[in-house]
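Retry 2 of 3 after timeout on previous attempt. Resubmitting C-alpha cells to design endpoint.
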C-alpha cells in the first residue's frame, strides 16, 4: 500500500511534464476508444479539452455527489468482500 499510494501523484506529475514539454507525445498514443470516450464526455460537458468556466450548478453538484457516493459504496462493498475472503482463509 505504501508504494501504491505514490502511483497516482507520480502519474499526474509525468502527465503534466509531458503536456508541458512535448504535448504532441500524448496525442500520438491515444487510441480510438479513448478518444471516443473523451469526445463523449466533452460533448456532455459542452467542450472538449478545455476547463469549464463559470459557476457549478446545483444539478451538477448533486450529480457529482451521487456518483461519488455510488463509487464509495461499491468500493466499501468490495473491501468488505475482501475482508470476508481473508477471514475465510484463516
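Retry 2 succeeded. Sequence:
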Amino acid at each position: 500500500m505504501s508504494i501504491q499510494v505514490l502511483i497516482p501523484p507520480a502519474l499526474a506529475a509525468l502527465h503534466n511534464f509531458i503536456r508541458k514539454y512535448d504535448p504532441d507525445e500524448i496525442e500520438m498514443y491515444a487510441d480510438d476508444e479513448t478518444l471516443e470516450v473523451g469526445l463523449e464526455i466533452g460533448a456532455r460537458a459542452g467542450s472538449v479539452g478545455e476547463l469549464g468556466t463559470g459557476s457549478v450548478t446545483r444539478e451538477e453538484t448533486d450529480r457529482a455527489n451521487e456518483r461519488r457516493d455510488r463509487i464509495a459504496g461499491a468500493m466499501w462493498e468490495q473491501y468488505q468482500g475482501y475482508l470476508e475472503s481473508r477471514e475465510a482463509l484463516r
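Attempt log closed. The chain has two domains: 1-45, 57-90.
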